[in-house]
Amino acid sequence: MVEDFIKLNNDIKMPRIGYGVYQILSSMTEKCVSSAIEVGYRSIDTAQCYGNEQEVGLAVKKSGIDRKEFFVTTKLWGCRGYSDTLKSIESSLDRLDLDYIDLMLIHEPTGNFVEIYRAMEDFYSEGKLKAIGLANFYEENYLKIINNCQVVPQINQVETHVFRQQEKLRDLMKEYGTQIESWSPMACGQNNFFNNETLKEIAKNHNKTVAQVGLRFLYQQNIIIIPKSTHKERMIENKNIDDLELTNSEMEKIRTLEKGKSLFGWW
User: Is 22 a catalytic residue?
Assistant: First the structure.
């Protein structure tokens, strides 16, 4: 039995499946997040550069559900150092209109990210950020944070899917207690994900979809996933993987799909 939550290195519980809002227009975000909440999502992942933090906050508030039931993630963008990061964190708190943010990440390793992280640590110590971490930090930059931080990052969100499984990075982060989180867990459909013969065969054996198999492959390895869809039926499908258990043989078959590089060429 796999738990619905993962306990981070500071004992905060984070849902293992969240709802991502990357590239969802701000005009659609509130409705989409409200739909996701209706079908059971409680973890919502946004970012400053997505331009939809305000709409995420509105959906959370209008849900009528206790704030403590939600886990809201956002990410810093364009910060250069300590001082501007302080202002940037405040701006996210204002746009989300929340007293605290459950998880804040540095979106990418630009600027003086050691100082940017130090600013997050200060907000963390005040309780305005319940967890802090990184996104798109690989070995060298991750270790630079580890060697200069007071608070070990709770999360590192990186491109992770059946074609880029991040085993080496996962092993490194495990040494320090940082949890991996996947962005683009279905590879944004790249590399013909939805028509992959291996995934199709396994999906057929379980009477599930290719999407569900790809998501379960990560979920079953304790990788946090944040699938995105603007369609309610897909939101339900992406979450409905509790009754799917991949065999060791099936897991090994999927492991052979590893490409060893990004499908997007970003990091």
Answer: no
Query: Which class for 84: exposed (0-12), middle (13-18), buried (19 or more C-beta within 10 A)?
Result: middle
Amino acid at 2: V
148-153, Cβ contacts within 8 angstroms, sequence gap of 24 or more: 148/114, 148/117, 149/114, 149/117, 149/118, 149/121, 150/121, 151/10, 151/121, 151/124, 152/9, 152/176, 152/177, 152/178, 153/117, 153/178
Angle at 261 between CA 50 and CA 208, to 5 degrees: 75
Q: Tens of pLDDT along the chain (267 residues)? A: 456 999 999 999 999 999 999 999 999 999 999 999 999 999 999 999 999 999 999 999 999 999 999 999 999 999 999 999 999 999 999 999 999 999 999 999 999 999 999 999 999 999 999 999 999 999 999 999 999 999 999 999 999 999 999 999 999 999 999 999 999 999 999 999 999 999 999 999 999 999 999 999 999 999 999 999 999 999 999 999 999 999 999 999 999 999 999 999 887
Check if CATH label 3.20.20.100 holds for domain 5-255: yes
The one catalytic residue in 19, 50, 124, 219 is 50
**DSSP characters over 187-249:** GGGGGGGGG-HHHHHHHHHHT--HHHHHHHHHHTTT-EE----SSHHHHHHHH--TT----HH
